[in-house]
Amino acid sequence: MLQSPFILLHASNWVDNNMAHLIQNVTSVMLIADRMRQQRFILEEMYANIRAAGTSMEQMRVLYGALRTTKAKSVLFTILHEIEPHYISKDIIMLA
After folding, report:
1. Which of 18, 30, 65, 92 is the least buried, fewest Cβ under 10 Å from its Cβ?
2. What are the pLDDT digits (tens) for 2-34?
């Protein structure tokens, strides 16, 4: 889905700008973590830390701590678009 540098940056910025909303509302954090681990955007230790966190909000905070690059953030955006599209604003979907 995401390929051009502009779209990657826009998706990454969207993830940054919506961090608080996502932390408070995303409940399928382990599904996201599973996919990010499978794509090697998070390592086993970070995956274990996410899994050990008590609530989905805590899990999402730990996951955010692993998102160091534009690419990793755009992967989170893509996964959210696939599994919980209601979190993604319509304006950015039109760019993809």
Report:
1. 65
2. 456 667 778 889 999 999 999 999 999 999 999
The pLDDT of 51-78, averaged and rounded, is 94
Task: Assess if residue 41 is contained within a domain.
Answer: yes
Burial of 14 (0-12, 13-18, 19+ CB in 10 A): buried
Chain segment 79-91, per-residue pLDDT in tens: 998 998 887 755 4
Q: Which residue range(s) make up the domain with 72?
A: 7-92
